[in-house]
Amino acid sequence: MSTPHASETESEPVRSGPSWAAPAPVRTHRWGLGAFLFAEAVFVLTSVVLAAVFSAPGTAAVVLMLVLPTVLAGLVAVGITLVRGNGPRLDFGLQWRRSDVTTGLAIGGIGLVTTMVATTLWMRWEGAGANSTVSSVLDGVRLPPALAVLVFLHIWLVAPVCEELLYRGLLWGAMERMRWSQLNVFVLSTALFAIGHLEPSRTWLLLIIAIPIGLARMVTGRLTASVIAHQVNNFLPAVGVLLIAMGWMPA
């Protein structure tokens, strides 16, 4: 008798128990454009209420008006992913990857140069009245060093995270769920980012600022790169706001 082949005598091990269990499928998020509109409404309504309550704001109120609306909107975006999705890490790709960081730094650096050029042109076009909303709020207000640094860190590091959660997170994910092409998602999110700041005189400038940030999101497919690019782009404006808040530079 011939000896049976190993394949005839050895059977595959029985796949049972945790070590052989198939990973649970990640469910698709269940939010749409309504989630983005809700988070954006939180931002707008918070800004309006604070402006009405603090008609003549002091230093602490100014900081609250600059920080609270953006942070609340960002928290709403995170909450929506937890309730209607898998959390920001999976739904937005908000995780630490060296490649995303380097891509964000590279694209953000290019964006910073284009922003500086565009801002210079915008200021020449607008003349002496050229000003951002943040600079206008701080005009004539001198903040204590601790609060000035807090505003600086918010504009440089925190606000970009919150804004990316809204525009390249909720909005981007909602349009992807509607099976829009990546190019259309990029174009619409870039346009709404510029319009959503509610600064008509700066809309075209914000559009230029938003292009490299959106590219970082589209190239990597994850939010980390666009957050980094946004933070790089916001650094010099944040320094300017710090100097204005300290009274070392006119608004």
Helix and strand string, N-terminal first? Answer: HHHHHHHHHH
Fraction of helical residues: over 70%
What class do helices, strands and sheet pairing give?
mainly alpha
Contiguous uncertain segments of 5+ residues? 1-24
How would you characterize the largest beta sheet?
none
The counted number of beta strands is 0
Number of domains: 1
> What shape does the CA trace take?
globular
Describe this protein's structure.
The chain is mostly helical and 251 residues long. It has one domain (31-245). Helices cover 71% and strands 0% of the residues. The protein is globular, with a radius of gyration of 23 Å. The chain crosses the membrane at residues 33-54, 60-83, 104-125, 145-167, 179-198, 204-220, 232-249. This is Type II CAAX endopeptidase family protein. Keywords: Membrane, Transmembrane, Transmembrane helix. InterPro entries: Rce1/LyrA-like_dom.
Short description:
The chain has helices at residues 6-9, 33-53, 59-84, 88-91, 98-126, 133-138, 145-177, 182-196, 203-220, 223-245.
Secondary structure layout plus pairing:
Blueprint: H1 6-9, H2 33-53, H3 59-84, H4 88-91, H5 98-126, H6 133-138, H7 145-177, H8 182-196, H9 203-220, H10 223-245
Helix pairs in contact: 2-3, 2-7, 3-7, 5-9, 5-10, 7-8, 7-10, 8-9, 9-10
Protein name: Type II CAAX endopeptidase family protein
InterPro entries: Rce1/LyrA-like_dom
Region (Disordered): 1-21
Considering the chains and any ligands shown, give keywords for the structure.
251 residues, mainly alpha, 10 helices, 0% strand, globular, disordered N terminus
